[in-house]
Amino acid sequence: MRSSRVGITGSPATGKKTIGRALAEEMGVPCLNLNEVAGLAGFLVKEGRGEPKLDAVGFRRAAPKLLPAGGFVISGVFVPEAVPSRLLDKVVVLRCNPLVLAKRYEERGYGAKKTKENLTAEFLDACLGAALQAFGGKVREVDVTGMDLPRALSAVKASLKGAQPVGQVDWLSLIKGPEDVFKFMS
Questions:
Q1: Which of the two residues, 173 and 68, has the higher pLDDT score?
Q2: Contacts of 13 (CB under 8 A, 6+ apart)
Q3: Of 2-11, 70-79, 83-92, where does mean pLDDT reach its minimum?
Q4: Domain count, the chain
Q5: To 5 degrees, how large is the angle CA 117–CA 149–CA 99?
Q6: How many CA atoms lie within 13 A of 15 on its CB side?
Q7: Which of 59, 74, 102, 166 is most buried (CB neighbours < 10 A)?
Q8: What is the per-residue DSSP string for 21-75?
């Protein structure tokens, strides 16, 4: 695989960091975690007692100086908001069944509010929509539900090689009635 600049985004717990590291290793390029790079550069802002928030506007302005000149893989939920389109060749949005994500969020100790916000975002294709708005035809979508790392990595690499249609994943079909809306969505 030639040296290129790839963004990996998606809802929390879809495998962005893990797949990003494996892809970068295969490509022979640095793997960057958006939050780590932003933190080191002073673009994570602490607000009260909550988690630090990314200053996406500030990071976007500084990105040309912060990101390597050659190939790299950068992963993070906020890649579409923080990384200018001209700095990436392709962007992969990782998707995962919200019912699977709900279990992962519980294992990670997410609170009810954070869980519902993230599940709502996945149900409504929020990460995909943000990526399409920011990167247009550079975007690829991969449903990694039930895949181990080798299979997920293979699917991501295949998506980078071809122009596959996006928007094929439809989690709303999982909603069977009002109880599911209240259970999984804000």
A1: 68
A2: 96, 101, 104, 105, 108, 118
A3: 2-11
A4: 1
A5: 30
A6: 24
A7: 74
A8: HHHHHHHTS-EEEHHHHHHHTT-EE--TTS--EE-HHHHHHHHHHHS-SS-EEEE
* CB neighbour class for 136 (10 Å; exposed up to 12, middle 13-18, buried from 19): exposed
Say if CB 67 and CB 87 are below 8 A apart: yes
Residue 160's domain comprises: 5-184
In 3D space, the residue among 93, 105, 100 whose CA is nearest the CA of residue 131 turns out to be 93
pLDDT at position 186 is 52
| Whole-number pLDDT of residue 162 | 81
Q: Is 14 in contact with 81 (CB distance < 8 Å)?
A: no
Helix residue ranges per DSSP H, 34-177: 34-40, 56-66, 79-82, 98-107, 112-123, 126-135, 149-161
pLDDT digits (tens, 9 = 90+) for 126-178: 999 999 999 999 999 999 999 999 999 999 999 999 867 787 888 777 777 77
Q: For residue range 20-57, what is the model confidence (pLDDT) as tens digits?
A: 999 999 999 999 999 999 999 999 987 777 778 899 99
Amino acid symbol at 165: P
What is the domain-level CATH number for residue 147? 3.40.50.300
